[in-house]
Amino acid sequence: MPCKACPAACSCEDEAVTSKIAKPAPRAYEAVLQSIEAELRSGALKLGDQLPGERTLAEKHGLSRASVRDAIRILDVLGVVRTSTGSGPNAGAVIISQPASGLAAALRLHVATRQLTVGEIVQTRILLETGAAEAATVDPEDEATRAKLDEAAGLLELMDDPELARADFHALDARFHVLLSSLAGNAVIEAMMESLRLSISDYVAESIRSDEAWEPVADVLRTQHHGILAAVSAGEGKRASQLLREHIEWFYAETQR
């Protein structure tokens, strides 16, 4: 029934019902997470700073030390702190920023549940890498750019070794792709690329089971890598984007055989 103060179509009654629905109680450790986030945003905490000890944080927030430990563990998994035992400036929980590790941990678990598929991760990687290739500004005179291109060439030289172990090839391959994506100058793309790589690294390693089947695949990948780097080095963003798409789609198709 509508209230007297509102039009017939008012939603006051619905809002009253909604307001009676109990909201989930915040978990105790969330107070610590919110406090640390606020201090990071304000600049009170910065990279390299050491967090106060468990007892201090527990007293500050009126929590148990167990709840504080829960918060620190979450920050560790998210790549926001590094924890270590002992004493000194590097002991305890120190503020860092490694977003890829936190994103990868979440993605790996969701891929394992099969709610996110490897195919979807690969498609996301294609979108990011091709976009990064087209957005990259390659100035041969720029020292930082030159250093990245030289590093990429060095990675390909290592991958050209026919005696290289498959696991090492995959690790170098991943570094090569993340390095090229970094030329776009976007830290979020770089972190996402690294997290996508880590989230399906096991699936990639297990996708081609025998060394006999791997050898011809590796030969094609080597050729594709050199073509991609040549296009990137020449500042041919659209060409590099096209080659990256073909390269990733081809390898994914090979893993599905």
User: Whole-number average pLDDT?
Assistant: 88
Low-confidence stretches: none
CATH architecture of the largest domain: Up-down Bundle
Note the overall shape: elongated
> Helical percent range?
55-70%
Which homologous superfamily in CATH is the superfamily of the largest domain?
A: GntR ligand-binding domain-like
Biggest sheet details: 2 strands, antiparallel
User: What is the number of helices?
Assistant: 12
Query: H/E order of the elements?
Result: HHHHEEHHHHHHHH
* CATH topology tier name of the largest domain: Four Helix Bundle (Hemerythrin (Met), subunit A)
Strand order of the largest sheet: 1-2
GO molecular function: DNA binding; DNA-binding transcription factor activity
Organism: Crystallibacter crystallopoietes
Protein name: DNA-binding transcriptional regulator, FadR family
Keywords: DNA-binding, Transcription, Transcription regulation
Question: Would you write up a description of this structure?
Answer:
This protein is mainly alpha-helical and 257 residues long. The chain has 2 domains: 1-97, Winged helix-like DNA-binding domain superfamily/Winged helix DNA-binding domain (Arc Repressor Mutant, subunit A, Orthogonal Bundle), CATH 1.10.10; 100-255, Four Helix Bundle (Hemerythrin (Met), subunit A) (Up-down Bundle). 66% of the residues lie in helices and 3% in strands. It contains 12 helices and 2 strands, in the order H-H-H-H-E-E-H-H-H-H-H-H-H-H. The protein has helices at residues 12-19, 30-42, 54-61, 65-77, 99-112, 118-135, 143-159, 166-181, 187-199, 201-207, 211-233, 237-255; strands spanning 81-84, 92-95. Strands 1-2 form a two-stranded antiparallel ribbon. Strand 1 (81-84) and strand 2 form a beta hairpin. Helix 5 (99-112) runs parallel beside helix 9. The longest helix is centred in the C-terminal third of the chain and has 23 residues, at 211-233. This is DNA-binding transcriptional regulator, FadR family. GO terms for molecular function: DNA binding; DNA-binding transcription factor activity.
